[in-house]
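We store amino acids, tokens; thus:
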Amino acid sequence: MRRSVPVATIAALTSAGLLLSGCSGKSSSSGSAEANAATKGIVNASDEKGGTLTYAMSDAPESYDPGNTYYAYVWNFSRLYARPLTTFKPGPGPKGNELVPDLAESMGKSSDGNKTWTYKIRKGLKYDDGKPITSKDVKYAVERSNFARDVLSLGPNYFQTYLKDNEGGYKGPYKDSSPEGLKSIETPDDQTIVFRLKQPFAEFDYLVSAPQTAPVPKARDKGADYTKNIASSGSYKFDTYEEGKKVVLVRNPHWDAKTDPLRKQLPDKIVLNMKVAQSTIDKDLKAGNTHIDMAGRGVDAQTQAQLLTSTKEKANTDNALGQRLSYVAINPKVAPFDKVECRRAVQYAVDKKAVQTAQGGPIRGDVATTVLPTDLAGYQKFDQYPQKYNGENLDLTEAKKQWEACGAGNVSTTISARSDRQDEVDAATSVVGSLKKIGIDAKIQTYPSGKYFSDYAGVPAFTKKNNIGLMMMQWGSDYPTGFGYLNQIVNGKAIQKSGNSNLSELDDPAINKLLDEAIATSDKGQREKDYAEIDKKTMEQAVIVPLTYFKILLYRSPKATNLVSTSAYSGEYDYLNVGVKK
């Protein structure tokens, strides 16, 4: 889902008490829960209404527009004010992967061999201004988010890729003013929406869980500026929007619990403070002045050290997997990485144990050897580029052999990282040190998270022009299947001019074909075998250097209710029904 967010740097620390627990256990209704309690149940379960729930984050989101965002935490948060056709039911760990109807009254009805999907939206739904929500608003939301990429480029392009297009090419609602719009989305009445696809798509119910299916009334759309005045279809609406500073949500008076079995609308007000130093967020979490770190980054280095050495403090932590991978994307469009031998040399040369230490030690994730994370169905353990150590030192014999075969000699390149993610910068520093030993002089160039994909690493023309051969990346599944994880980072169809997540611009016909075949079959077991094969073929291309199967370490505020760490949102707490103790 998405561009997951990293954590703070610290020397390797381990704690048996903080290893990821299994996802069984009872919910806790008291403030004295144990470590990892939110990975096993809902902590401080409560239906108590009232109070102000406070979030904070160290940066600002790229956008709050549900059709123009791709960070996991915004997808999670946006469900408070934007209801997609389907969503994930709050639950611990893998139980949070349960897909349920949201704006739709039931899951989709497929026909024509999974090429046509029909949904009925619930009756009686209204926006925050009291006007009715219709199926036409869902159609418009998909059109604007997927077919106007020159205006809204930050989200995924699944619908653009898989929906039938109009003859001659549909240019999106800002350029095509015809009342019919995209012909492959039909709205025969105000409650029914029908999607017609180019090819079978067995996991379409998952696809419509993206916030891009949250309804948008055409009359209120302002293009890129829609983020400043979003029409709410959820239980909360925007009261205050101060760009880059603060957002305040209040109850949506036209939300009706009878039309929404998922949301509880507990707090009176929800406040999000932006661009707050991570150390300050951690202090405020412990003091009870902030209830949730919005970005789900995990605590910083100093706080982590304090938590792991205090039995009392450890009881308020959750260490969770979340279908995440930390990796280096190699750019084959930039010499000398256009040669597979050069890319293989990087695979063998990067000291993954050193990177793991830079990211915070084993508590932040195990060393990775595959593209698929270990907690996704379809994962198969293998190691295409096994690393050997002589004591503490990485054996570079194979790395030097591949580099010699590549014939590049001593070269200079640039590695990109996000400036406000110190752990990512430190991991990049570790990579730089490793590569120097085989003749690669890499310079780190940092860019802000909010613009990393829209202006820099996610713009192929920019990376090529600026000799960016390597890019630091962390990825979480769009939805909890191999396709939901792999498609946007290895499918050639997913490459975009801006907002690109396939940073290596991998466009391998065999991989593209396997993805198409996998998503077309209704056989779940066969799909998972295909995803494992895609993983292996991607590693053969050597364009992704897996670093760690990333885990987060969150501080759980005893003053917040209904906290549960969910795999569906990268191990973050599920934001749908968090409340506060009075």
Notes: The chain has 16 helices and 23 strands. The two ends are 34 Å apart (CA to CA). The domain at 322-552 is CATH 3.10.105.10 (Dipeptide-binding Protein; domain 3). Residues 5-31 have pLDDT under 50 and may be disordered.
